[in-house]
TrEMBL record:
This is Porin. CDD domains: gram_neg_porins (cd00342). One of its GO terms (biological process) is monoatomic ion transmembrane transport. The keyword Signal applies. It comes from Rhodnius prolixus.
Length: 369
């Protein structure tokens, strides 16, 4: 039996700032348990009050495996994030604690893995290529938003190296069950931006031996009645039976160099929820076009400078609008003292104009952590 004094040593070692670390706490008779976590002490600076102030947090999780037979392994993962920027006694379970992952499944030799629970949506596969900036990036990857980020109730199949026949050729399939006012999780309290009907997605990737990778993904998810008509019966913008997301990405990752670019389109999926004063509100965008690019170099002494460009342009046909909801240049760097401790900073030069039709904030922002 694992003793408490082992955990007393392991957990503080896991929670080193700025890095995700894992420690094996049990490995016997085909059963394995790893704990991992990190603490990020972070402060944001901006004239935009919503992006100014302390944003520290901690993450803690575990991964477990059990050998069923020579070809089948059962596995599971759980991870939670705990906000550290609130006052004691002001705890809000929906705001201060986020369950990021909670799934379990089976790994079958050469066949692949299949699991169910809260996991990353398959429409994120292309966005992941550029979601590597020190702080921001991947702005159109949103949790519980049509498989573009971490999502609830997903059945995921992943196959690596195409049944063991082609190195570097990977594909995946995913099904998501409905999360809306008719399901047990949150009911009518679930935000419009985080509802969904039944849907599915797929992804295909090839990574060559020289470090060049290419990926493509597609997802189609039914939208809910509330997302088209709201709870009060009023029509919303961006109506449609389905939300769709497709994306492609290209990367090079070798010789201490990482460069990547992605292009993606979302239909009836981006929740803009914005307007300029005195104008009708845009709820969902009919179409969102996304382009992101990033370049990084990892020096041997631990420094990784980063340069990125991120933009997303949303189209609202109902109100005849077409403008950016995200557009900035990112300049940043990470310095790793060792594998367990690092510091970083990122400065985002906001390219949004003050005449933006969605009322998107145009202030620059800086993160230090």
């Amino acid at each position: 039996m694992m003793k408490r004094n082992i955990l007393a040593v392991v957990i503080p070692a896991l929670l080193a700032a700025g890095a995700v670390n894992a420690a094996e706490v049990y490995n016997k008779d085909g059963n394995k348990l790893d704990l991992y976590g990190k603490v990020t002490a972070k402060h944001l600076f901006s004239d935009n009050h919503a992006k100014n102030g302390d944003k520290s947090y901690a993450r803690l999780g575990f991964k477990g495996e059990t050998q069923i037979n020579s070809n089948i392994t059962g596995y599971g993962r759980y991870e939670a994030e705990f906000a550290a920027n609130n006052t004691e006694g002001a705890y809000n379970s929906s705001k201060d604690v986020k369950i990021r992952y909670a799934f379990a499944g089976l790994k079958i030799t050469d066949f692949g893995t299949i699991d169910y629970g809260r996991n990353m949506g398959i429409a994120y596969d292309s966005l992941a290529y550029t979601d590597v900036l020190p702080e921001w990036g991947g702005d159109q990857s949103n949790a519980d938003n049509f498989l573009t980020g971490r999502s609830t109730g997903v059945l995921t199949y992943r196959n690596k190296d195409f049944f063991g026949l082609v190195d570097g050729l990977n594909f995946g399939l995913q099904y998501q069950g409905a999360n809306n006012s008719g399901t047990l999780n949150e009911g009518n309290g679930r935000k419009l931006s985080r509802q969904n009907g039944d849907g599915w997605g797929t992804s295909l990737e090839y990574v060559s031996p020289v470090g060049v990778g290419v990926v493509a993904n597609y997802a189609a998810i039914n939208r809910t009645n509330e997302q088209n008509y709201a709870f009060g019966g009023a029509d919303l913008t961006g109506q449609g039976k389905k939300a769709e997301a497709w994306g492609t990405g290209l990367k090079y990752n070798a010789n201490n160099i990482y460069v990547a670019a992605i292009y993606s389109e979302l239909r009836n999926a981006s929740y803009v929820d914005g307007r300029r004063a005195g104008t009708p509100k845009t709820d969902f965008a009919d179409k969102t076009k996304i382009f992101e690019a990033v370049a990084q170099y990892n020096f041997d002494f631990g420094l990784t400078p980063s340069l990125g460009y991120v933009q997303a342009k949303a189209q609202d046909n109902t109100n005849n609008r077409n403008d950016y909801i995200t557009k900035y240049v990112s300049v940043g760097a990470t310095y790793a003292f060792n594998k367990n401790f690092s510091v970083y900073s990122e400065y985002d030069i906001n390219l949004i104009k003050d005449t933006n039709v969605y009322g998107v904030n145009d202030d620059d922002k800086v993160a230090v952590g």
